[in-house]
Amino acid sequence: VTCDPTRGGKVVLGRTHNPRTDVYSTVCAIQNLWLAARAEGIGVGWVSIFHDSDIRAILEIPDHIEIVAWLCLGRVDELY
Q1: Rounded to 5 degrees, what angle do the CA atoms 64, 36, 76 make?
Q2: What is this structure's pTM?
Q3: What is the pLDDT of residues 12-37, one digit of tens each?
Q4: CA torsion sign, 12 to 14 to 15 to 18?
């Protein structure tokens, strides 16, 4: 999941005076996805074993785009 702080132009409601609100909204969207997935029996994991620089290089993510999360989603048979 990424966030592009340049999307929508320079003047965007909420982001004009606090540029971090777009990232906050992105994190809220992740939480909503997570809650909806769990309600459907789908597991979600927030992966933290990769370096952003590696993900950026592999996926060719431009420097101005912020990497917010690397998620795994899928059916879960059991929890360890």
Answers
A1: 100
A2: 0.82
A3: 777 778 888 899 999 999 999 999 99
A4: positive
